[in-house]
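Attaching the record inline, Q. Sequence:
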Amino acid sequence: MSDPTIVSPASSNVHDETRSVVKAAGLIGVATFSSRILGFIRDMVLARLFGATPAADAFFVAYRVPNLLRELFAEGSMSSAFIPVFTEYQTLKSKQDAWELASAVFTTLLTIVTGITILGIVAAPGIVWLLAPGFHDDPAKLAMTTLLTKIMFPYLLFISLAALAMGILNSMRAFAAPAFSPVFFNIFIIGCALFLSPTMPEPILGVAIGVVAGGAAQLAMQLPGLRLRGMLFGFRFEPGHPGVRRIGALMVPSILGLSVTQINITVSTILASFFAGGPTYLFYGMRLIQFPLGIFGVALATAILPTLSAQAARGALDELRTTLGFGLRMILFIILPAMLGLILLRQPIVHLFFEHGTFTAHDTAETALAVLCYSVGLWAFGGVRIIVSAFYSLQDTRTPAISAAIAVAANLVFSLLLMSSLGAAGLALATALAAMVNGGILVAVLHRRLGGVEWGSVGRSSLRVLIASVPLVVVCAWVAAAQFWTHPGDWLEKSMMLTMAIGLSVSGYLGVHAVLRSEELDLVWGMVRKKLGRVIGR
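Structure, as predicted:
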């Protein structure tokens, strides 16, 4: 059942690089796990304080605007376009040339994003009018959404600069500071919700202020790492710099290509405004999906992009194919069981984490249905992140953009077809189906471009994952069938039951992999054992 090797034996260099990717992904995963835990605490606090009220709907619609622009101009297109070019400068040119490029990009980015932020604040009423047509009959709700949008727009400026800092540090294989910086984002939101909101005339305004303060903290967290590597951003306004022009050329199509998920979520948010509580149900549903996706999918994609970019810069396409195949195997090793667990335990998880205060049992049922619909596409969300990284390492942003445009159109069609029968959950299912369409197109094109990516090995690995998931399915189905999930109270007992379910599921899953002599498990366990040996040795 196992493959003879997890990487091609043709190159020891590839083997070392895949181990480096696993190590980096592990570090990013730990940091992201910490951030996601705080994110859950944040969401629990917001659910308790605001539930699925009009104030919550207004906040989540308003937050969608700067968050979408963050994906479009910052963490999405900026990172994907900057890292390959900056890596090429480091590989083929001097260190000074690379730093000059970074400073030129910093100054250009600061200028553009400042302009967008000012324009966004001025145009906030029109933006909200377009994004929330379901709010048109509620002037108070529309006005609150507009005010929240104005308050949170400066978040875009801070998070854009933070994303550039992350790109520089990741290109230099420094992953710790960028990975841990979102922790401070969540800390500021929680703190403002608990301590600032009660002092505000409208409590939700305190949360919006926390978003902006958290974005500033993410940037500040990474500045010491840049200083240690001999650089802080310098002002070098040079939009005609060859590297800046190349990054700009790559960014234009990647704005759509990498951010297809955010665009689809935004389309869903617009349509969800016609359903009472719809934006809130979709937000919390996507938050649960983003927990495994952020910890493992984003971590692996972040760790693998510098390696793929370096291989592409050297023209080592054989190594790139092997690394990409390895990335797909590892993402499926983690994401597929997470998908099954979320599908089966969706009701207990939503009930335990969110059904407090003003968040009702009805809200739990609607959010759990959204989780189910999002979950069926979790494997596609994760796989697309890895595959898109391969395209960007080749400095091809056009293909993902075309694929994304098709996926956005598919999402709109699916949404209009499903929302009448499934409500807000139909919009979640449409987003999942669109991710599958996007992934299918990208896989077909990449296969033709690279001449294959060890699909046989990926298929055998997926089969092992499904076999190993049998104990997980049995345990999760048994726990989910318990009657006390529909009853209030008994939070300690419910927490212990959910913890036991997750523990037994993970143990059973890894145990079957051990019996099957899974090479994926062997590699991960080897890295863990090596790390533990170093810690004990100290």
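The chain has two domains: 1-14+261-287+316-538, 51-258. Residues 135 and 142 are 6 Å apart (CA to CA).

More tomorrow.
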